[in-house]
Amino acid sequence: MNWLHDLFFGTGIAHSIFVLSIAIALGITLGAKLKFKGITLGITWILFCAIACSHFGMTLDPLVESFAKDFGLILFVYSIGLQVGPGFFSSFGQGGLRLNILAASIVLLGCVTAYVIHLVSGTDIATMTGVLFGAVTNTPGLGAAEQTFQDMTGVANPDIASGYAMAYPLGVVGILVSLLLLRWFFRVKLDKEEAQVAAEKGEVQKVSHYDIELTNPQVDGIRVRDLGLLTHVTIVVSRLIDKGGN
Q1: DSSP H helical ranges for 91-189
Q2: Do residues 119 and 188 both lie within one domain?
Q3: For residue 81, is it within any domain?
Q4: pTM for the whole thing?
Q5: 39 φ, ψ to 5°?
Q6: Segments forming the whole domain that contains residue 18
Q7: How confident is the model over 227-246, as pLDDT tens digits?
């Protein structure tokens, strides 16, 4: 049975890829299957599965770990940029500047809070840095903090990632619980909110298709584009059939 033990607790590049595959596959499966009242943790389960694998003694080759961490972070940041990039600058004219200032204020407040906790509790500043980014589920911030520490000292500090891993689950759960409490306290109805947003954007919720034969002589001579003014609805005519059937 040594082969089975080596399969899960061995060393090498192939073993590292296998462990990563286990954590990712289990995390995606749990994220898709486990739901509570329509709420799921999604891909956050991958982190929980990775923590469990590490707890039971599964390890990664240092080179594979370094590559997977950097490459995964690059893909994450790049995909976010592709998603929000096209409308980033145009959003400044629609309240985006105010939202960016608010986001920057939240980051600054988080840094101040983490530093105060460091002074009061005596917790190592590297660990508190990881806790800070884990509490706000900021993975790029974790990568930036680890790289900055390594550039300053010449060595990596695993306490940053440890603090991140400890705070991240509570950060996810805390956000979900806070949103649920706010939704309950303010009696927010999601269907009404979505309808209101759609109405503000001028989106049409439902398009009706009709075949209409005009027999009213009072509309003779009225242009098709002016018919909507009589009904106060938007009319799009895709086809016209004359008396000859053409």
Answers
A1: 96-121, 125-135, 139-153, 158-185
A2: yes
A3: yes
A4: 0.62
A5: -105, 135
A6: 1-85
A7: 666 666 667 777 777 766 66
